[in-house]
Amino acid sequence: MNYLRLLAAFFWVSVISELAYRVNFVWQLVQSFLSLGVSLAGLAVIFSYTETLGGWRPDEILALVGVYFFVGGLIGLVVQPAMEQFIESVRDGTLDFTLTKPEDAQLTTSIKRIEIWKLIDIVLGLAVLVIALIRLGENVGAWQAGAFVLMLTAGGVIVYSFFLILATLSFWLVRVENILMIFQSMYEAGRWPISLYPGWLRYGLTFIIPVAFATTVPAEALTGRLTWQTLLVAVVLAILLFAASRAFWRVGLRRYSGASA
Amino acid sequence: MKALAELYTQQFKTTLAMMFQYRAALVIWMIGQVLEPLVYLIVWSIVSKNSGGSIGSYTTSDFAAYFIVLMLVNQFTYTWIMYEFEYRVREGILSFALLKPVHPIHSDIADNASSKLITLPTMILIAAGLALGFHVSISPAPWAVAVFIPVLLLAFLVRFLLEWTLAQAAFWTTRVSAINQTYFVLMLFLSGQMAPLTLLPHPVQVAAAILPFRWMIGFPVELLLGRLTLTQALTGLGAQVAWLLLGFVLLRLVWRAGVRNYSAVGA
Predict the structure, then answer these.
(1) Residue from the list A35, A54, A188 with its beta carbon closest to the beta carbon of B181
(2) Candidates B35, B55, B195; nearest CB to A188
(3) Please, are residues A255 and A172 in contact by the beta-carbon 8 Å criterion?
(4) Chain B within 8 Å of A30 (Cβ-Cβ)?
(5) Which residues of chain A make contact with B28, given a CB cutoff of 8 A?
(6) Geometric angle at alpha carbon B191, from B255 and B12, rounded to 5°
(7) What is the DSSP string of A2-20?
(8) Contact yes or no for A21 and B199 at CB 8 A
(9) How many angstroms away from the CA of A13 is the closest CA of chain B?
(10) CB A179 to CB B179 under 8 A?
(11) Residue B41 contacts by C-beta under 8 Å, 6 or more apart in sequence?
(12) pLDDT one-digit tens code per residue, A63-114
């Protein structure tokens, strides 16, 4: 409960500080709509030359695009900005202020900065997802919906843990601002079903940079492609990575020497 | 002129030193530069195989050639000035540049060119590897290769001038990431990065011919692949020169207005 109150407070602070940049809001709106528009136009072009792409029908790819925008929005809303700020705070020593607070430092670090404009992407992603679902019609049953929510959660946890591990490296390496970019540049590939890619790339996008679990796997759940094995791997990996990132964070924290300590 | 030459040499040394300091960042950034064209290469190859081995005038291996050459052209013309400039204005670092007796664009050009001395050979190796992997061969006419060199240089200059001008939006709004994103999204669609422009609907092709994006990326690629006639190549060259002049005028106007609008701490 306390955590939710904290989250609300951080969210409110972000809203207030962002409202100072009103022109930016208009541009963010334009940009989100445009990038979705171009994404859909690209799909329209591709599907004007083919019926299916790697076995995926247009509406199924549309659902994947919805997931792509939704998850990308979530990462941009809270995970990435907070991790960037955390890396910065290790470098300049302001992490001290977080550590002296009574709440769990990993939690406060993870929600400290919120990029509210990404809510637009989240809403747009959801809208596309809903449209895709309506068009897919009765093919989506309760089991698919349940598996989808479960896989989305697992994917979210996996991505969060991955970011936390990368960011925690800053306790040793100090200058790692750019390390987070690796996810961003790989995420682009998550726009399409991972099964399209050659083996080495598919492997890399699944186990080295876990883009597959963030986009393809939830979309697979929705379109009835998910196997029990994938579901199990995703859940187990989410739990393991979360535990590992937490442990790694603690080890890192012990190394932190602060600005004043 | 001599002072400028010295500035370029010094900037070259500084940039080299910086790049060796941020090796990891460089590698990560290059992965991104390779991945995007590679993804579209794979997607279009699959589409092409689905429809019997070719779409329009592009066979499956033509798609591979297209996106591999595009990777190189994009690498050659790429700038990061739009990210850099926001930071300079927001933090007030630009004030120092304004004190210097030369236009700040010079050190930016030098910085950009020298960083490419390192990234470009790496990219050529990657492209060669991919070309082997995807069994790509291109055989452009000798005249196309000869025209390609000035076309590529013009593509770089046009892109540099326009992006440098656009970067100055930072003088008015301070936060420009959304403007940058808008620009990159338009470019993705209209420059030929997403698909060869001839495969897009006719209205899009017309828009692409009027806007500068095609002349910065798609046009050099098509030229080197031997898909243009001499007349088309020369017309394209004309379009590039026109955009170069326009870009130059725009840059002067925007820069003058922008600097007047700039108010840093202590300026």
Answers:
(1) A35
(2) B35
(3) yes
(4) yes
(5) 178-179, 181-182, 185
(6) 50
(7) HHHHHHHHHHHHHHHHHTT
(8) no
(9) 18
(10) no
(11) B63, B64, B66, B67, B68, B134
(12) 999 999 999 999 999 888 888 888 888 888 788 888 888 778 888 888 888 8
pTM, entire model? 0.89
> Could you give the 3-state DSSP secondary structure of residue B148?
helix
pLDDT digits (tens, 9 = 90+) for B77-123: 998 888 888 888 877 778 877 777 778 888 888 888 888 888 889 89
Q: What is the ipTM of this complex?
A: 0.86
Q: Which residue has the tokens 């598919």?
A: A202
B36 contact residues in A (CB cutoff 8 A): 185, 188
**Which of A31, A189, A201 lies at the smallest CB-CB distance from B181?**
A31
Please report, for chain B, the start and end positions of each structural domain, with discontinuous segments joined by +. 2-261
- Distance CA(B239)–CA(B259), nearest Å, equals 30
β-pairing, B58-59 with B54-55? antiparallel
Substitution target from A22, A25, A34 for chain B, most B beta carbons within 10 A: A34
CB contact under 8 A, A34 and B25: no
Question: Do residues B27 and A178 lie in contact, with contact meaning Cβ atoms separated by under 8 Å?
Answer: no
Do residues A90 and A174 make contact, with C-beta atoms less than 8 angstroms apart?
yes
Amino acid occupying residue A251:
V
Question: What are the residues facing A56 on neighbouring strands?
Answer: A53
- Helix ranges (DSSP H) in chain B: 2-21, 23-50, 60-77, 81-91, 94-99, 105-133, 142-167, 170-173, 177-190, 202-210, 213-216, 218-224, 230-261
**Other residues' Cβ atoms within 10 Å of the Cβ of residue B253:** 11
Please report, for chain A, the start and end positions of each structural domain, with discontinuous segments joined by +.
2-8+28-43+51-255
Q: Which of A38, A49, A192 sits opposite B51 (nearest CB)?
A: A49
| A251, two tokens | 């080890």
The amino acid that residue A192 corresponds to is W
Residues of chain B neighbouring A179 (CB-CB closer than 8 A): 24, 28
Nearest alpha carbon to residue B143 among B66, B218, B223, B216: B223
Find how far residue A64's CA is from the centre of its chain: 14
Instruction: Give pLDDT tens digits along chain B (267 positions).
Output: 777 788 788 877 887 777 777 677 778 788 888 999 999 999 999 999 888 888 888 999 999 999 999 999 999 999 888 888 888 887 777 887 777 777 888 888 888 888 888 888 989 999 999 999 888 888 888 999 999 999 999 999 999 999 999 988 888 876 777 888 889 999 999 999 999 999 999 999 999 999 999 999 999 999 999 899 999 999 999 999 999 999 999 999 998 888 888 776 554
